[in-house]
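To whoever picks this up:

The parser on our side crashed when reading a file containing two proteins. I've narrowed it down to the boundary between the first structure block and the second sequence. Both blocks are reproduced below exactly, byte for byte. First block:
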Amino acid sequence: MTDTATTDAASEISNPLERRIEMTVVLAEIEKDVEQRLKQMSRSVKMPGFRPGKVPMKMVAQQYGSQARSDAIGAAVEKAYGEKVREQQLRVAGYPRIEPKADVGTGQLGFTAVFEVYPDIVPADISGQAIEKPTLTVTDAEVDKTIEVLRKQRTTYDETDRASATDDRLVIDFVGRKDGEEFPGGKASDYSVMVGGGMMLPDFEAQMVGVKAGETRSFDVAFPVDYQSPDLAGNTVQFEMTVKKVEAARLPEIDADFAKQLGVADGDVAKMRAEVRSNLEREVKKRLLARVKEQVMDALLKANPVDVPKALVGMEAEQMAEAARRDMEKRGMGMKNIPVEASWFTEQATRRVKLGLLLAELVKSRGLLVKPEQVRAIVDEFAETFEDPKEVVRWYYSQPERLAEAEALALENNVVEWALANATVSEVPIAFDALMGNAT
């Protein structure tokens, strides 16, 4: 058995990470292996009219010869491939594609293994990369805003006989007609909708203000040209709306009952505010770090343009597609009618693979290995929001594989700290609503 390594020039141009290994295997050695495999099979093979282990070798060869020969050739090629990879110290990414090769010597079979290797990465200097570090200190104003959000989430509604206003809730019947005919999706009964909530088209929204229970209105509604239904897009139709109820919003008072709803058993409002502040500080810290981390990763990618193996990108994209399928199934969406293609995730998968390779090299070359105390600190943060933090910590440490998420976060944090110490960093205050994604 012999093998040689070659590089295909055209392949190098299109994919600089692609490599080729040409191999030849000696047929006489293959035949010896086939014979050994058939002998092994004959000890346990079963055929009608024969006891196990007593089937004539000729019949075993007739029945299983092709399988044995295929397995023998596969094993020989795999051995030759593995030896050459180890000899050249190649870091193979993914699996090889084995192609038959013609024009080889008598008594031999020829093959070419086509595969990709990991790129050689030398992390670049990032001192010229600019990173803006957002800053925000939680004050009483942010606590008050958060409590207001929590109040709105617990809004109740009281029926009223006054005319409707913004933030009221209406219970309505409506029917839409195009050219005098009702159209699909244009009719509903006992439909609850917020006044000013933006759930309806603008012309419809305008008619929900200033109406009372029992009132009926007829009006035109213009559909936008890009509306999802082609039959309605760009058309003006007629709606009739009957108001059954007008319900006024009522926010809960900030009192002991409200505090108890938020989990403060004794209803102490001061304690509730302290817990809200603590939770808010934790969330703000997480979001600030996420913004910095995103900039660090962008800076690393910009400073380190790198080719990545297509095989790794493909595997990552498939994993992302599978995760999306599972998520959609959990949401009750029928996957038979909603195919999810791995190709949809190629761009995101490429970014992930690049960052994974870069971070691994940075950790190795800059000594950014994760320490046990860093992992424990992150696990403690995970556990803080649970009723029994000690039990949560025990759960994580009861099986080492459960620590993978915390270890990954700790590693990323080490890279972020290294980047902030080496890049050009400027602190920039950020507004609370902008950080939290609140509408202004």
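<<boundary where parser fails>>
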Amino acid sequence: MYETMPDHNLPDELIQFRDNIRRFVDRELRPLEKHVTIEGKLPRDVEDAVAAKAKAAGFWLMDVPADLGGADLGLLALAIFWEEIARTTAVSARDHGIFGPTIGPILLSLQGEMRDKYLMPVLRGELKACFAQTEPDAGSDPASMRTRAVRTDNGWKITGNKRYITKAATADFAQVMAVTDPAKGARGGISCFIVDMNTPGVKIGPAEMTMMGDTPYEIIFEDAEIPAENLIGGEGMGFTLAQNYINHGRIRHGAHSCGAMARCLEMTAAYIKQRKTFGALLADRQGVQWMLADGYMALHATRLMVHDAAAKADLGQDARVETFMAKITGVENGFKVIDDCLQLHGGMGLTRETPLERYWRDLRSFRITEGPTEVLKTTMARSIIKNAGL
């Protein structure tokens, strides 16, 4: 099979890492798919048990520095990890809690008392965090956000609404993006704050039921006062912090698309060799063969883009455009390939007997989240025009 061919572009240690996590996925996670609910979650006892196995196997806190008890993986290694765990629907596309709490670069930037108060309890599983940037009128264009943070004698006062915030209902605190200088906008006018969810003036608004099964919420800030030290990274640094967070997410989306495509193509290649229609195997029909060939080409191209973007980011290079391309190519290719695989499975593809419908819903949503395809293309085109190429 294509998926077991050696990858000469990866160093030996990453190939070994890939093979190890793949074995863990095949042995421990795929058998759990029958327990996944329509919301894409495992029962708590099942999740706790497999999380203990992941920790014992060394697959724990993958993006956290070693001095904090993590695996300290770079983005290329993380991309490989994200692809491999995407080969099963036992791991939620948006929540990898089986492998430890989700941290992200914003919390990892905390120092001193703020690190002790927020980061360390999250690492220990004592606190939960959410990330609040999207607003009712500022989703794809965060520079137009209206949530304001105004200085007070004791710190800051935040007013505004955030929407589609994942984990808002269960979070102990939020990483909130707010405008501190409207005149500067995205160029130094947006700051990042940590806001405890029990702060007076912070309210959880209505839930939003999505096609993916998750339930994001609205967060309402009504003159919520927070201490001065809860400003993260300095005034005006919020957009930079948020973009670093989102750039990681774009590579993750591209890598997840690779894993999803690989699993669905694997299933489809096996299915068409035994499914007959009108007296002939699907595998013998040229139209079906071409769909499968197109799918493998799309997978290969996407993986190369994801690895390239991640490797450049690891070297400290400006890889923003590369993350755009990896995300766009991944989610657009991924949705098309999975849609074709579902089509070739016929009526079975519409049922929950296979993970195809789960992958289909996730990849359709990825075309919108972490930057819609159209917005990313427009932003990338501006960079191309400005710099007369890439």
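After patching the parser it read the second block fine. The chain is about 45% helix and 15% strand. Residues 1-6 have pLDDT under 50 and may be disordered.
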